[in-house]
Amino acid sequence: MEIGLKKQRKSSMLTVALIFKEIAHRKINFVLGVLAVAMAVTLLVGFVITEKTSSRETARIMLNMGFNLRIIPKDTDMNKFLIDGFSDQTMPQEYLDILAGGQKGFSYNHLLATLHRKISWQGFDVILTGLATEVCPPGKERPPMSYEIEPGTVYIGYELATRLKLKKGDTIEIGEQSFTIAGCLSESGSADDIRIQSNIRDAQEITGLKGRINEIQAVDCLCFAPTDDPLTILREEIVSRLPEAKVFQAKKIAEVRKQQRIFVQKYFDIIVPFVIIICAAWVGILAMMNVRERRQEIGVMRALGYGSGKISLLFLGKAVVIGLLGAALGFVLGTVLAMTFGPYIFKLTAGNIKPVYGLLGWFMVAAPLFSAVCSLVPTMTAVTQDPVVTLREE
Amino acid sequence: MIHLENVSKIYQTRYGTVKALNDVTFKVEAGEFVVVRGVSGCGKTTLLMTIAGMQRPSSGDVIVGGNSLYTMSIRGRALFRAQGIGFVFQMFHLVPYLNVIENVLLAGGAVGGTDTESQANRLLERLGLTDRTFHRPSELSAGEKQRTAIARALLNRPKIILADEPAGNLDPDNAAVVLGHLADFRRQGGTVIVVTHGTDADRFADRTIYMHDGRIDNFS
Predict the structure, then answer these.
(1) Residue A40 forms part of a structural domain
(2) Which of A226, A381, B22, B96 would bridge with B214, disulfide CB 3.0–4.6 Å?
(3) Which residues of B touch A297 (CB under 8 A)?
(4) Which of A249, A278, A302 is the last residue of a domain?
(5) Which among B172, B156, B170 is positioned nearest to B87, based on CA atoms?
């Protein structure tokens, strides 16, 4: 009598069904696995959102304090400038385009033109600040340091919003124009609390200074010429192109900004590998426990003719399910935590703490992969264990 | 059907060398019911696993159904086992999270087929398990568990059933029922090898082989 080898056809019990039935049976192992992945994803999502907010917060602080280079009208009374925080003179807005377009002698990372004016509004002395669209070098998109303000909308400082009981969505009149309040800023304890921020064109319209600005803030300017005194060269280079302007450097602020970046990066560099290693070990140990618990089941499957591929699939498939669920849960938890506690930490940009939906897609791919990699050694253990030994165990 | 030629299996342990099978040669014809009897540790289970293609012998040849098992690839041997050999274990080895019919169908997972579900239902009916179809192993008696294991072993219509102490955990009544089902399989043309240290299976056997220290002692 001969036993022929028939061609293998579709399984009568799908591997997927086996995975889910096992999950339903050993819930604790599964839940702990999901929690491990979710914990890693929660921390990473929370960290990314926080880091983004932190950068925005710094940018906001930097925006009010100044940038690496401040380019202001040449005739500015420096005494008044330092007291008020802005120039009483103006210069042409085209200066922004001149600086932005292909400079040979220097490079920059961000350029922001502003127009500040003190105006009386609703019985208060307020600072009206018009913000132009931030400019980055051509072909080098960078995360913006400020936010863009739509024409016809304004952001109201904390003091003004509180005193006048203004809120987001309200309509206000400034001069002869009406504006919708796009947001009310959190308390800053600075001149920002009495500031109204608008699109630069609206500010020019209100102040009657069409096509004029009174400052260009430039970040991370570099002088290309080999010199011991790059600032002097940089100044000469800029002033030669902008005859109505003068340049000074905000050195301390540049250093603070650099330190802040390094601090955040260091924090990220330490925390992330630590979290990943802990969670990887956690997932790996749980998978190993699962393999040990299922030794006889694996032995029976071997006896029934199941190959290594199918047995691997049972364990790796479970790891993928753990990863997918952990990613989804971790994304929600991380986002909720960042949005709940973020506003207490980042008061200036509280309104800008938003879910980063792009992360969900990223983690839905990365977390199952991570979980599968962590389960690789246990899976190998499962497929290489000797079924003869396990089937003898009582 | 089954032919073992000078088969030896040697284990290296920390206490020295153990000869689990010592130059074993014997034949089992198709349609035979053979009992292999011996005390614990005499090499019975090793013999069974060697015939099943799950334990490569240190030397010798194992020919089953005309195929020299250990010249086949691991995958080929697994498929051969899935299609041609059914297993029954003393400890039943049912998967705890699957119900009775799912446990039976598990045997079809490695082979596939179009009528496995109807075949599983037929087997459950034949083995008196219809009212237990959706019960989990934890809800079954020992006899029912072993009958489920027999249904699983029969699902792929194997030519051979290898049973390791199939009645070892059963009361005499259930032991008789289980061994009776194995005898039915033999009557339908199947080959049965039962390894045991007891005498329960003797009355169903065509032959009893005695093992001692990895050797075949004599035939009856």
Answers:
(1) yes
(2) B22
(3) 93, 95-96
(4) A249
(5) B156
Would an 8 Å CB–CB cutoff place A28 in contact with chain B? no
Could you say which of A1, A21, A305 has the minimum Cβ distance to residue B159? Answer: A1
- Local confidence band at A332 (pLDDT 50, 70, 90 cut-offs): very high
Residues A80 and A207 both lie in one domain: yes
Subunit contact A302:B96, Cβ cutoff 8 A:
no
Same domain? For A291 and A192 the reply is: no
Instruction: Domain ranges for chain B, please list them.
Output: 2-219
Residues 221-280, chain A, touching B (beta carbon < 8 A) = none
Angstroms from A313 CA to nearest CA on chain B: 13
Average pLDDT over residues B197-209: 89
- Residue A220 has what pLDDT? 65
Length of chain A: 394
**Residue A232 CA from chain centroid, whole number:** 36
- Name residues whose C-beta falls within 8 Å of residue B220's C-beta, 6 or more positions apart in sequence: B207, B208, B209, B210
A233 and A140 together in one domain: yes
Residues A192-202: what's their mean pLDDT? 92
Domain-embedded: residue A115: yes
Decide the pairing of beta strands B33-37 and B207-212.
parallel
Nearest to B154 by CA among B102, B59, B86, B82: B86
User: How many domains does chain A divide into?
Assistant: 2
Place of tokens 């426990």: A289
Whether B39 contacts chain A with CB within 8 A: no
Across the interface, of B83, B110, B113, the residue whose CB is closest to A3 is: B83
Q: Does B73 touch chain A (CB under 8 A)?
A: no
Residue A5 lies in a domain: no
Do the bridges between strand B160-164 and strand B85-89 make them parallel or antiparallel, or are there none, so unpaired? parallel
- Cβ within 8 Å, pair B64-A3: yes
- Look at the domain B2-219 and name its fold: Rossmann fold (3.40.50)
Say yes or no for a CB contact (<8 Å) between B109 and A12.
Answer: yes
Question: At which of A249, A270, A299 does a domain end?
Answer: A249
Tell me whether B102 touches chain A (CB under 8 Å): yes
pLDDT in tens, A23-52: 999 999 999 999 999 999 998 888 888 777
pLDDT of residue A9: 38
Distance from the B96 Cα atom to the nearest Cα atom in chain A, whole angstroms: 8
Residue A142 lies in a domain: yes
Q: Which amino acid is at A157?
A: G
Interior CA angle at B91 toward B89 and B97, to 5°?
105
Closest C-alpha to A134, from A148, A150, A115: A148
Judged by CB atoms closer than 8 Å, whether chains meet at A12 and B76 is answered as no
Q: Do B110 and A303 touch (CB under 8 A)?
A: no
Interface test mutation site (partner A, options B71, B74, B79, max chain A beta carbons within 10 A):
B79
For residue A139, what are the domain limits? 69-249
A210 inside 8 A of chain B by CB: no
A13 in B contact zone (CB under 8 Å): yes
Closest partner CB to A304 (pick from B75, B80, B106): B106
Do A230 and A117 share a domain, yes or no?
Answer: yes
Q: What are the residues whose beta carbons fall under 8 Å from the beta carbon of A106, sequence distance 6 or more?
A: A221, A222, A223, A224, A234, A237, A238
Instruction: Say whether both A242 and A98 belong to one domain.
Output: yes
Question: In terms of domains, do A75 and A151 share one?
Answer: yes
Give the up-direction half-sphere exposure of residue A246: CA atoms within 13 A in the CB hemisphere: 10
